[in-house]
Amino acid sequence: MKDFCVFSQKCKIPRLDPFAIDSMRLFKPADFMECTNQPDLVTVRYDPKKRQYRLHINESLPELIPNISDYECTYKEIARAQNDSFVWISNSINFEQDSLVPRHIQGIIVECHELSNKSRVLQRDAFALVQHPVDRNDRIDEERSRSHPNVLLLGIDAMSQVNFQRTMPLTAQFVRQPGWYEMLGYNKVGDNTLPNILAILTGRTAKQWKYYCNVKKPGCLDAYTYIWNHYHSAGYLTAYAEDLSSIDTFHYFLHGFMRQPVDYYLRPFLQGIEHVMDKVEHLGYDYCVGRRQSYRYVLDYCLQLVQRFVKGTPKPLFGLFWLNSFSHDDFSGAASVDGDFVGYLERYKELGLFDRSIVILLSDHGQRTGPLMDLPSSFLEERLPMLHIYLPPWYRRKHPEVARALELNQRRLSTPYDLHLTLKHLLQLLHPRLSFFEGPHCMGCQSLLHILPENRSCQDATIPVHWCTCELYKQVPVSQRLQDLARLVVYRINKYLIKMNHEKQCYHLNLRKLLLAEHRQFFNDQGREVDSPNGLDYYRFKFTTKPNGGLFRATLSTNRDDSYVVIREEFITRLNSYREDSYCVHDRTSKKFCACFKNHALGK
Question: Is beta strand 551-558 parallel, antiparallel or unpaired with respect to 565-566?
Answer without folding.
Answer: antiparallel
